[in-house]
Amino acid sequence: MSDRLFVAVFPPLEITERLTELIEPRRDATPDWKWTRPENLHLTLAFFGDVPQARQEPLIDELAEITATAFPLVLNGAGIFGNTGMPEIGSQTQSGLGAKAVWLGAEVGAPALNNLSKLIRAAASRVGVRPDGSKFTPHLTLARASNRAPARGVCDVVESFGAFSFAVNEFVLVKSTLAKGGSYYQPWASYQLAPQLEVKQ
Ligand code: 2AM
């Protein structure tokens, strides 16, 4: 037996609610694009695919050994994943070429997310769980196209959403179950980051 596992940061409720308010009126307006369900909004730090049950307990324990500090994150601006899986950001999102996913990028906090992703992938490797090796691109997927579809309209919508700031205080190991209406995510284990020290001037 194995489970499909990944590690992610979930935005706090107020951000999810704000995003949901912005997304809901668009759901039926973009037939080629499926907007992410509110409870599924997240930033993936590491994707492991199917992890055999025997490796899950060691993985859960090894992730608990990670020491990292909480950090601020600001999500802003649209990016796309195209056929190549490579991110295309900024002006290229306006090119009108077909894309697979449209996402919100990290305006502030990308290096800290990258660092946390590295720590998580290293921890997983130590217990024989191989993380997806593709280049890490901090992103929160907002819409997916089952076939490549023109992304310009959706990118413009996402660009109009503005910025979302929050503190990343924890990361979560998630079990993903593939279902017809989209994946279903269950938190498997949560890990708190050390509080950020306040610098008094
Ligand atoms: P996405 O946000 O770009 O779709 C669960 O599948 C999560 O893991 C999704 O957020 C997905 O990213 C991410 N992920 C990263 N690499 C993946 C891969 N090779 N296959 C499936 N999902 C992957």
In short:
With 201 residues, this protein is of the alpha+beta class. Helix content is 24%, strand content 40%.
Summarize the structure in words.
It is a single chain. It contains 4 helices and 10 strands, in the order βαββαβββαβαβββ. It has helices spanning 13-23, 53-64, 110-126, 152-160; strands at residues 2-9, 33-35, 43-52, 71-81, 87-89, 98-108, 139-150, 164-168, 170-177, 184-192. With 201 residues, it is of the alpha+beta class. The longest helix is centred in the middle third of the chain and has 17 residues, at 110-126. The strands form 2 sheets. Strands 2, 4, 5, 6, 7 and 8 form a 6-stranded antiparallel β-sheet that branches. Strands 3-1-9-10 form a 4-stranded antiparallel β-sheet, with helices on one face. Mean pLDDT is 92; it is low at 91-96. The protein binds adenosine-2'-monophosphate. Residues 6, 44, 47, 101, 132, 141, 176 line the site of adenosine-2'-monophosphate.
Write the layout of secondary structure elements.
Blueprint: E1 2-9, H1 13-23, E2 33-35, E3 43-52, H2 53-64, E4 71-81, E5 87-89, E6 98-108, H3 110-126, E7 139-150, H4 152-160, E8 164-168, E9 170-177, E10 184-192
Antiparallel strand pairs: 1-3, 1-9, 2-7, 4-5, 4-6, 4-8, 6-7, 9-10
Bound molecules: adenosine-2'-monophosphate.
Residues 6, 44, 47, 101, 132, 141, 176 line the site of adenosine-2'-monophosphate.
